[in-house]
TrEMBL record, chain A:
Keyword Transferase found: no
Domain MacB-like periplasmic core: 17-237
Main subcellular localisation: membrane
Membrane association type: Multi-pass membrane protein
Domain ABC3 transporter permease C-terminal: from-to ranges: 268-398
Record-annotated membrane-spanning stretches: 20-42, 264-289, 309-331, 337-358, 370-391
Protein name from the UniProt record: ABC transporter permease
Species name: Flagellimonas profundi
Keyword terms of this UniProt record: Cell membrane, Membrane, Transmembrane, Transmembrane helix
InterPro entries: ABC3_permease_C, Lipoprotein-release_system, MacB_PCD
From TrEMBL, chain B:
Gene Ontology molecular-function annotations: ATP binding
ABC transporter domain: residues covered: 6-232
Keyword field contains Transport: yes
InterPro entries: AAA+_ATPase, ABC_transporter-like_ATP-bd, ABC_transporter-like_CS, ABC_transpr_LolD-like, MacB-like_ATP-bd, P-loop_NTPase
Top-rank lineage group of the source organism: Bacteria
Keywords per UniProt: ATP-binding, Nucleotide-binding, Transport
Protein name per UniProt: ABC transporter ATP-binding protein
Record keyword NADP present: no
Taxonomic lineage: Bacteria, Pseudomonadati, Bacteroidota, Flavobacteriia, Flavobacteriales
Pfam family, one: ABC_tran
Length: 405, 232
């Protein structure tokens, strides 16, 4: 019967109950939305980095990572690559020759990382073809084409079809240089990389370096599904026990940190919103207790013990929360669903964000588990907030409460 | 001489929370036997409510002892006192007697449930009790849908639910018109006579006082007079 009384009590002051329910709904919705947006932002950044830049798995000669010298190459990379590609977990795989060097224009010199790539294989990985703002993607048939970022082009004051010279050390440690012509200018989502990464055909670079075409400094493997990463990386390690096999988390520990810190943000953001909720609930429930002093006094007089009074007030709060939570979850889930499909255009800020590798359309997304965490936190907060008002009810002395009649 | 049901010795109560301590009761002695129908009268502020609260165990005296049906309730710990109240004492207050969200049936049923009466017996008892106060037709009305007099009658029925030996009523008629007041008193008198329930009620309504068989007058926290009379 206490349950029934508590349930009916919440409908005595409908406005007040709706305020509590409403703040729970808004609190939940806001938490969910902010978290989904933040996650969308990070995910966007991570996906971009993984898909366009890192790939899921990279394989290098063990010395290459430290020394960054092209002579540390993986032998028979081409045949290994064809083995890797057969696996149906693999989306695409490519091999690259990488060397650090200088690019020289008629006016300026700049340090660059030169990637020797296989144009066809990289369509699915680096995706340079999609990012070109000028020129065509390796279509001239000439092997001295170079593709540079817009930012670098500005710095070097060069245009499409301009001539540049690349200078670097070959595998025999002598300095070599080669003349290239700008075949295209690109702009990726990561402006800081645009300034240093330049792309040429692998054969041309191999020839200058003195590497075999079968050799390669980097094997990059993009999987169809991230979830296959752990099993697949084990397989790759068995296949190439002498090489250094790393996944994207090893390659960019900062990205993994982003994910970990995101979990922390989950709690901090929800915590702040829920704190606001706490004030609302404490206030409202306290008001409802103080309004009912005489009635509570009467209940104590007719034989309701303190435990039952406490339980009744807690139940009232629980009911309000249970009414608010599903609605808040639903509204949150729906808005994430809708905005996750259409995206939120943050073009106004994207200039700044793009330099950090963010794109201008954010697709909010949230792991199902986070919904439950937020909802449970909300429930716990509501119940904790009810403790003080319920405790105040216990402090009432029946005689004095009734005297107020 | 009948069995003693209420026995108060040297009961004093001083409210110290106020700026100036208020001596609400001073050395009150009170002896009431089973089946009595007693009115507690006196001007406002004379200590009637305070005395009823001491007897009902809703508050503790500053000094003195109160026995109800042989139990020294002034010594009972809080939780035992609640149970004792539930089993032995029925309360009727001036107003706010009923749980506003419950119907008459549920208000009475709730007290029965607190006493762990089975659902089947509850239904039967509720009907019986409402019949006693002549309000069967209001069984499914909430307090808000009842007149003041009807609410007080449901309150009496609710007070009776636990089959208490005594009913303490603090100005039960204060908010009622004279017709409802005398109707309520008639019901109380009938219960007193037929069920042998002891009634102790405070009032300052002359017509109500006339219905009592014993009238105790308090003045400034002391018993001023204690007379037996023939009720009208
Ligand atoms: N809780 C309380 N705190 C302080 N003073 C009180 C309290 N309850 C009653 N009093 C005082 O005690 C005196 C007796 O009050 P009360 O028993 O209510 O009288 P009555 O019911 O006869 O009008 C009054 O002076 C009243 O102001
Ligand atoms: Mg009074």
């Amino acid at each position: 019967m206490l349950v029934q009384i508590a349930w009916r009590n919440i409908w005595r002051n409908k406005t007040r109950s709706f305020v509590v329910i409403g703040s729970i709904v808004v609190g939940l919705w806001a938490s969910i939305f902010i978290l989904a947006f933040a996650w969308g932002l990070y995910k966007n950044n991570i996906d971009e980095s993984v898909n366009r830049h890192l790939s899921h798995i990279q394989v290098h000669h063990p010395e290459f990572t430290d020394q960054q010298e092209s002579k540390y190459a993986i032998q028979n990379a081409d045949s290994i690559l064809s083995v890797l590609k057969i696996d149906d977990r693999v989306q695409s795989a490519s091999m690259r020759t990488i060397v650090k060097g200088m690019i020289t224009s008629p006016t300026t010199v700049s340090g660059v990382t030169i990637y020797g790539i296989s144009p066809n294989a990289e369509i699915k990985q680096i995706g340079l073809n999609q990012n070109l703002i000028q020129g065509d993607y390796f279509t001239s048939g000439k092997d001295n084409e170079i593709f540079i970022g817009e930012k670098l082009a500005k710095k070097l004051k060069i245009k499409l079809r301009s001539k540049v010279v690349l200078t670097f050390t070959d595998i025999g440690s002598s300095i070599v240089s080669g003349a290239f012509r700008v075949g295209g200018i690109y702009r990726s989502k990561n402006l800081s990389l645009d300034e240093v990464n330049v792309y040429v055909q692998k054969q041309s670079l191999d020839n200058l370096l003195g590497l075999q075409h079968s050799e390669s400094n980097e094997l990059a493997i993009l999987l169809k599904d991230e979830s296959a990463l752990d099993s697949y990386i084990t397989y790759v390690r068995q296949l190439m026990p002498n090489q250094k096999v790393e996944d994207w988390k090893d390659l960019a520990p900062d990205l993994e940190l982003v994910i970990e810190s995101f979990n922390l943000y989950t709690y901090i953001i929800s915590g702040i919103i829920l704190l606001a909720l706490t004030f609302g609930i404490v206030n409202t429930m306290l008001m409802s207790v103080l309004e009912r002093i005489r009635e509570l006094g009467m209940l104590m007089a007719i034989g309701l013990n303190k435990r039952k009074i406490f339980f009744m007030i807690m139940l009232e709060t629980l009911f309000l929360t249970l009414l608010g939570c599903p609605v808040g979850l639903l509204v949150g889930w729906l808005s994430v669903l809708v905005l996750g499909t259409f995206g939120i255009n943050i073009a106004i800020f994207s200039e700044g964000l793009a330099s950090y590798g963010f794109s201008s359309i954010i697709y909010p997304a949230l792991d199902g588990q986070i919904y439950w965490i937020v909802a449970i936190m909300c429930l716990i907060t509501a119940l904790l907030s009810a403790i003080y008002p319920a405790y105040r009810a216990l402090q009432l002395n029946p005689a004095e409460s009734i005297r107020k009649i | 001489m009948g069995k003693t049901i209420i026995d108060a010795h040297n009961v004093s109560k001083t409210y110290k929370e106020t700026a100036v301590p208020v001596r609400a009761l001073q050395d009150v002695h009170l002896h009431i036997e089973e089946g009595e129908f007693v009115a507690l009268v006196g001007p406002s502020g004379s200590g009637k409510s305070t005395l009823l609260n001491m007897i009902g165990g809703l508050d503790e005296p500053t000094s003195g002892t109160v026995y109800v049906d042989g139990v020294e309730i002034t010594k009972l710990p809080e939780n035992k006192l609640i149970d004792f109240r539930l089993q032995n004492i029925g309360f009727v207050f001036q107003s706010f007697n009923l749980i506003p969200v419950l119907t008459s049936r549920e208000n009475i049923g709730f007290v029965l449930q607190l006493q762990k009466v089975s659902k089947k017996d509850r239904e039967k008892r509720v009907l019986e009790l409402l019949r006693e106060v002549d309000l069967e037709e209001k069984i499914d009305s909430r307090p808000g849908e009842l007149s003041g007099g009807q609410q007080q009658r449901v309150a009496v029925a609710r007070a009776l639910a636990s089959k208490p030996k005594i009913i303490l009523a603090d100005e039960p008629t204060a908010n009622l018109d004279s017709k409802s007041a005398s109707n309520l008193l008639d019901i109380m008198a009938k219960l007193n006579k037929e069920e042998k329930i002891t009634f102790l009620f405070s009032t300052h309504d002359q017509r109500v006082i006339e219905k009592a068989r014993r009238v105790i007058t308090l003045v400034d926290g002391k018993v001023d007079s204690d007379v037996n009379q023939k009720p009208t």
